[in-house]
Amino acid sequence: MLPGRGPNGRAAALARLLGTRIAWTPVGDGEFFCPGCGGDRNYQRLAGHRRFCLLGVPVLPRGETGPVVECAACRRHFGTDVLDHPTTTRFSAMLRDAVHTVALAVLAAGGTASRAALETATATVRAAGFEDCTEEQLASLVDALAADTGRITGEPCAAGLAIELHEALDPLAPHLAAPGRESILLQAARIALADGPYTPAERDTLATVGAALTICTDDITRLLESARTPS
């Protein structure tokens, strides 16, 4: 049999004669976390139009395809759901704000009279990214929160505070692995324990934090107990 005359050769020749190509049109751009590159990159959002081609020349439309997201660096195409993943910069800000909100909620449950609790909360918030945070700032924010909601120290987690916790944690939780979600709860538990055993109000607030982080009830109990045991 002559070269190029077998089944594979005939198929390749036919593909050169007839085929379908996609013409991509940019319809938007921005920055995203590229799973191919493993970092923040610029992207173009592309809409595609299929064309039936004869000898490489488009002759008939065959409908639309896409849209897709094309990375400006690696040029790979991804589904538009990739844009649901926050960029590294956005993720860091979400995590920082979540830790700050959780620290305030725990302090609001236990009060700001304890120096140890304020010191622990301040160190936690600083480590999360608010490097200029001070004990005085946190105490003032807790006082302002109490004045705004009419909440009294020692009460269970109020509806308004629970909403704030969910607003800060709900968008973050799907992008955190289990150890990351547990770490936030453990940080909150250590703030509560800095001035002694959990109060009922602190336990209620910590349970709300755990639920917002999609941690099951049994694991919340386990983590709160483990935080009481010195490492």
TrEMBL record:
Task: Write the signal peptide boundaries.
Answer: none
Question: Record's InterPro entries?
Answer: DjlA_N, TerB-like
* A Pfam family annotated for this UniProt entry: TerB
User: Which top-level group of life is the source organism from?
Assistant: Bacteria
Query: Which residues belong to any copy of the Co-chaperone DjlA N-terminal domain?
Result: 97-222
Q: Where are the transmembrane segments?
A: none
This chain belongs to the protein called TerB family tellurite resistance protein
Task: Please give the organism.
Answer: Streptomyces thermocarboxydovorans
